[in-house]
């Protein structure tokens, strides 16, 4: 990988590779997650992927992308711990598939520049009000639609209940309340503020040379800026477990247990191995013992976020088995706290984690995602270092991690209707 | 273009072993892993067959049940063993196929060996079959909570009345609870024959090692057996009625469907693939961003990004489905019907943009060249005469506007059928 500092706070990371039939380009704008700018950023990101001055309609935009050999272009909003990223994303086919273009890469960056610099609207009124209102409607509908996806909805509700700081609980895509009140002008200003002040990481993966990419990136109007932002979030540990029960129309109940687990950054691989043993994989103890042996859940898994220290167990459970399922999950954690994991089980989990890592080397999306995370936390780990770090985790370390886990929340979504 | 495809999909090999098992090797030496699949030409729809002159009728969901149970081996679970070996394994059942596949690090073959063993050596034990009944029932429940899955099931029910196509792939709670070890063994013996299976491997591997390993494995060593005869499906006509159901949805959802080659002989092999690709292109053009009619719907708020139009082709069936959330269900149904009734003309009117949808479709397929799992799992076996992604790209590349128009003009299609899901009356 080659990193070029294009301007202070504006970085280009180039990963030349001949493995893929495509070139992937990310332009990431990152700042501290906050409630003030979030609504504007979310709606601006929707506007940026929908239209621009040059491509004022969805059809015009689609046509431009089709002419670039079915290039895909879109925007995302995402969180890395307490950081919020607004991302422009483009994938182009390898030049050898595009006989009538001199360089799709150069054409692609020209397109990105167009979308970034000349959105549909003007500085006085903000984004085009008609398209903006339509995008707002779509975003609100999407949030309403998430309500229908029960596992997702339950996880969201549990996260809201877990975090003391309501800002940290806010999802990357905002909330109905935030999106309702943003004006086209506020969203416009939020975008230009983002372009001016956020940390920028441009990532290019594909059969490209650094000089060509650097030249293309220098055409983007990005000036120097100061880098601020901290991905890590902490809150005081609670002695009592918070209990939340919510009623909804579900055939299958959702049980979510949230725990706090803070680990020093240098020890984070111990946390990853612990999570993989506990519930992060399809051979983890939760899956094997709660689902397979005891038949207490259709799905059960854990997820660990090293930036916020939130360890979450989610399970799809028969209503009649909720209590039993929780006892069994508790028992699995206790077993990891009191008994050292056997050598062969630990070796198997490590083998799986390493196999998954190797798999990710064949996935452009995961390669660029990992690079972005490493840039944001300022820790660079090569493939060899990553594999070695996982290998070096011991059974004693896993046990120590298990003992640092503290249950903070019991949340269940069960069948029924509210009385009020 | 063909050169570019070959650059990213070189040296594909297709071979047949003496026992009838087919082998497809798709090397990608730049990758860090390989994906291997055993796929059986047997799916949820294949619920009856002849054995010793007798018609055997099996419970709905049997193929999927068998897929789950094949992992249970004497004294061990094949899924866990594959995981222990560092492989990421999975399996899925469609209406017409059952597939078992895994991702393993490059040049590690123990997992492949296991895949070629457990899929050939069933072990159906009564107690574990009974336990599986409960697990699969929960899975059926979960699908019931997914409104999109329910809507899709209902539109298939309208398109394929009284045909297993209309059944949930996992079956029903009742059918699942009726499954016995004997049922599973019967189906295995009838359909899991070497000549009814394909092994597909893509990624980084050594060809000689893989070939030797397959030859020596139970998959390569099992003796050939005679095929069973499967009765042909007699499809009922599609009625143009509208089925209205209440569901736990926030906004109304509409699904519409139409069968192709209704009452006509279906094309097979590469010609079937060519028509399937052409049908998808036509749907992309007529129900996509280049159609002014479609954009009028979109801009007026009648549809949003949840709108989808798909052309599907599986062994013995070809059909088009359209699904959307909409505040104006009746208007949308009329508008879609009008487009479909005049599909060839609407397509012809959009000729100027044909090359653009074709470039888009090519772009999507080229992206899949990066995804070994996609390359392997989209393989449809004999349905498309063992075509691979490389063949798909070449067929798409060769298709012209005139080809597609001719296919649309000649297609014999059924009536259009509709399902509307409305929000529960009590919900508001």
From TrEMBL, chain A:
SUPFAM superfamilies xrefs: LuxS/MPP-like metallohydrolase
A molecular function GO annotation: metal ion binding
Protein name per UniProt: Peptidase M16
Organism: Weissella cibaria
From TrEMBL, chain B:
Domain Peptidase M16 N-terminal: 59-172
Transmembrane parts of this sequence: none
SUPFAM superfamilies linked: LuxS/MPP-like metallohydrolase
Domain Peptidase M16 C-terminal: 178-346
Xref: InterPro entries: Metalloenz_LuxS/M16, MPP/UQCRC_Complex, Pept_M16_N, Peptidase_M16_C
Source organism (scientific name): Weissella cibaria
A GO molecular-function annotation: metal ion binding
Pfam families per UniProt: Peptidase_M16, Peptidase_M16_C
Name the UniProt record assigns to this protein: Peptidase M16
């Amino acid at each position: 990988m080659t990193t070029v500092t294009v301007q202070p706070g504006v970085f280009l990371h180039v990963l030349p590779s001949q493995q893929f039939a495509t070139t992937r380009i990310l332009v990431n704008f990152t700042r501290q997650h906050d409630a003030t700018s979030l609504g504007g950023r979310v709606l601006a990101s929707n506007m940026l992927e929908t239209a621009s001055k040059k491509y004022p309609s969805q059809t015009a935009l689609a046509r431009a992308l089709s002419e670039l050999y079915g290039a895909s272009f879109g925007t995302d909003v995402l969180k890395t711990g307490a950081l919020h990223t607004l991302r422009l994303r483009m994938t182009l086919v390898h030049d050898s598939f595009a006989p009538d273009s001199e360089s799709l890469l150069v054409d692609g960056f020209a397109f990105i520049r167009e979308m970034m610099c000349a959105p549909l609207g003007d500085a006085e009124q903000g984004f085009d009000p008609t398209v903006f209102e339509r995008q707002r409607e779509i975003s609100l509908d999407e949030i309403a639609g998430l309500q229908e996806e029960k596992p997702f909805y339950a996880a969201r509700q549990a996260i809201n209940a877990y975090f003391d700081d309501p800002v940290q609980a806010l999802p990357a895509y905002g909330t109905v309340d935030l999106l309702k009140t943003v004006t086209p002008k506020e969203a416009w200003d939020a975008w230009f503020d983002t372009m001016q002040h956020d940390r920028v990481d441009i990532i290019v993966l594909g059969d490209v040379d650094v000089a060509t990419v650097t030249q293309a990136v220098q055409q983007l109007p990005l000036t120097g800026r100061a880098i601020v932002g901290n991905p890590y979030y902490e809150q005081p540990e609670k002695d009592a477990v918070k209990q939340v029960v919510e009623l909804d129309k579900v055939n299958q109940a959702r049980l979510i247990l949230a725990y706090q687990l803070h680990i020093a950054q240098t020890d984070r691989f111990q946390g990853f191995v612990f999570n993989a043993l506990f519930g992060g994989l399809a051979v983890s103890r939760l899956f094997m013992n709660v689902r397979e042996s005891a038949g207490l859940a259709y799905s059960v898994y854990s997820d660990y976020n090293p930036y916020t220290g939130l360890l979450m167990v989610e399970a799809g459970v028969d209503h009649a088995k909720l209590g039993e399922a929780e006892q069994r999950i508790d028992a699995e954690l206790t077993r990891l706290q009191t008994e050292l994991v056997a050598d062969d089980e630990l070796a198997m989990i490590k083998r799986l984690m390493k196999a998954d890592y190797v798999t990710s080397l064949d996935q452009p999306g995961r390669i660029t995602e990992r690079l972005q995370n490493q840039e944001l936390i300022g820790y660079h780990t090569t493939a060899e270092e990553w594999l070695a770090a996982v290998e070096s985790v011991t059974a004693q370390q896993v046990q120590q991690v298990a003992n640092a886990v503290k249950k903070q929340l019991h949340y269940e979504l069960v069948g029924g209707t509210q009385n009020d | 273009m063909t050169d570019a495809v070959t650059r990213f999909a070189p040296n594909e090999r297709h071979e047949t072993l003496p026992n009838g098992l087919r082998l497809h090797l798709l090397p990608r030496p730049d990758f860090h892993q390989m994906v291997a699949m055993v796929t059986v030409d047997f799916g949820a729809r294949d619920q009856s067959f002849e054995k010793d002159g007798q018609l055997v009728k099996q419970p709905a969901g049997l193929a999927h049940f068998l897929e789950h149970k094949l992992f249970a081996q004497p004294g061990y679970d094949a899924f866990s063993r594959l995981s222990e070996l560092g492989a990421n394994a999975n399996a899925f059942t469609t209406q017409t196929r059952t597939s078992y596949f895994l991702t393993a690090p490059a040049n590690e073959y123990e997992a492949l060996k296991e895949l070629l063993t457990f899929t050939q050596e069933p072990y159906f034990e009564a107690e574990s079959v009974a336990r599986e009944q409960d697990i699969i029932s929960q899975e059926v429940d979960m699908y019931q909570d997914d409104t999109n899955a329910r809507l899709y099931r209902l539109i298939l029910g309208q398109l394929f009345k009284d045909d297993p196509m209309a059944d949930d792939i996992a079956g029903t709670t009742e059918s699942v609870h009726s499954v016995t070890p004997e049922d599973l063994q019967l189906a295995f013996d009838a359909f899991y024959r070497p000549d009814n299976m394909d092994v597909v491997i893509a990624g980084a591997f050594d060809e000689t090692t893989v070939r030797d390993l397959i030859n020596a494995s139970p998959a390569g060593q099992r003796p050939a057996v005679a095929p069973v005869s499967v009765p042909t499906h007699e499809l009922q006509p599609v009625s143009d009625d509208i089925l209205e159901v209440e569901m736990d949805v926030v906004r109304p959802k509409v699904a519409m469907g139409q069968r192709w080659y209704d009452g006509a002989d279906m094309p097979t092999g590469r010609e079937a693939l060519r028509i399937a690709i052409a049908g998808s292109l036509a749907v992309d053009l007529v129900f996509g961003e280049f159609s002014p009619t479609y954009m009028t719907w979109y801009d007026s708020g009648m549809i949003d990004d949840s709108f989808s139009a798909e052309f599907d082709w599986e062994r013995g069936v070809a059909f088009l489905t359209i699904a959307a959330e909409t505040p104006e269900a009746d208007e949308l149904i009329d508008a879609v019907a009008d487009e479909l009734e005049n599909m060839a003309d609407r397509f012809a009117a959009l000729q100027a943009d044909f090359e653009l949808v074709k470039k888009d479709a090519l772009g999507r397929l080229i992206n899949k060249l990066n995804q070994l799992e996609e390359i392997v799992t989209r393989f449809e076996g004999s349905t498309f005469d063992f075509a691979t992604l490389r063949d798909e790209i070449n067929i798409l590349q060769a298709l012209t506007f005139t080809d597609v128009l001719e296919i649309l003009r000649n297609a014999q299609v059924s009536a259009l059928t509709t399902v509307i899901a409305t929000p529960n009356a009590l919900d508001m």
